[in-house]
Design a protein that fits this description.
The chain is globular and about 50 Å long. 12% of the residues lie in helices and 33% in strands. Strands 1, 2, 3, 4, 5, 6, 7, 8, 10, 11, 12 and 15 form a 12-stranded mixed beta sheet that branches. Strands 9-17-16-13-14 form a 5-stranded mixed beta sheet, with no helix packed on it. α1 crosses α2. β1 and β2 form a beta hairpin. The chain folds into 2 domains: 69 residues, no CATH class; 197 residues, Fumarylacetoacetase-like, C-terminal domain (Fumarylacetoacetate hydrolase, domain 2, Alpha-Beta Complex). The chain is mainly β.
């Protein structure tokens, strides 16, 4: 099943290219922010799923292009992003698992705009297309064997980076700016993704294919990531974790650019870029490239 929010955060199920409104099944929960609605659906999906399926079977829905798509998780409690998790260098150097946080204000959705701030250091060198996954239940000290049982579903994730922020010993400013974590357009439940370690990930900038890689190249699988993270922190329903990117092919973006990201089976996430001031070139090169 493919779940999403649309218009004024109505909940929908995507059937082909049409959205069926299932908000009526949420009326009993009262008025609450959309992030809590989605978390509640995730945590109690066994109850909601048959009701959503019944509505989707009898309703025609509306074209996806006719509505405003919202982030499927507007304000996740935790957004965790993997460091250096792909075998993409001339001489592979597999590092231990490591992650950084992105704040909730980083999150935007399909059709939204990545904002480049008006500061001298604002050099947005690349969007990183990534497989993201959503936790489905509270979990701590999970084994690799049981790890995928903790996953609710999968989504497209874009990790935006600013490569010229001073003092980047931490990633807070370089990767944590507003709009720097686009997700969506849908959450695809895990039953529709047989193997998260065999998915094609692609990024287009202004229609040109810039990245095309497979999640099989991960150093640390989704299973391994969950097992490692839950040694230290409790993961909760609605937490978003992204798996890192294959660095070869990363490209800068500029004001007016249009981005598209698609992981196999997860629909296509479309975004635009808006700049708010002059920027300088940091001459950053992706790992694995050679200089003359």
């Amino acid at each position: 099943m493919k779940l999403l929010f649309f218009d004024d955060y109505r909940m929908g199920v995507l059937n082909s290219d049409r959205i069926v409104d299932v908000t009526s099944e949420l009326q009993h929960v009262g008025i609450m922010p959309p992030e809590y609605l989605m978390e509640g659906v995730i945590a109690n999906f066994d109850s909601f799923r048959p009701r959503f399926e019944a509505i989707a079977a009898r309703e025609q829905g509306v074209p996806m292009a006719s509505v405003k798509i919202r982030p499927p998780l507007p304000r996740p409690h935790n957004v965790l992003a993997a460091f250096s998790n792909y075998q993409d260098r001339d001489e592979p150097n597999i590092l231990p698992p490591d992650f950084f946080y992105k704040g909730a204000t980083c999150v935007i959705g399909h059709g939204d705009t990545i904002e480049i701030p008006d500061i001298p250091e604002a050099v947005v060198h690349h969007p990183e297309p990534e497989l993201g996954y959503v936790i489905g239940r509270e979990c701590k000290h999970v084994s690799e064997e049981d790890a995928l049982d903790m996953v609710f579903g999968y989504l497209n994730f874009v990790d935006m980076s600013n490569r010229a922020i001073p003092n980047r010993r931490t990633t807070f400013m370089g990767k944590g700016m507003d709009t720097y974590a686009p997700i969506g357009p849908v959450i695809v439940t895990k039953d529709e993704v047989p193997d998260p370690q065999d998915l094609r990930v692609r990024l287009w900038i202004n229609g040109d294919l810039k990245q095309d890689y497979n999640t099989a190249a991960m150093n640390h699988s989704v299973r391994a990531q969950i097992a490692w993270l839950t040694q230290y922190i409790t993961l909760m329903p609605g937490d978003v974790i992204c798996c890192g990117t294959h660095h070869i092919g990363l490209s800068p973006v500029n004001d007016g650019d249009r981005l598209e990201v698609e992981v196999d089976g997860l629909e296509r996430l479309s975004l635009s870029v808006r700049g708010h001031g002059p920027r300088k070139d940091a001459h950053w090169r992706p790992p694995g490239t050679r200089t003359s």
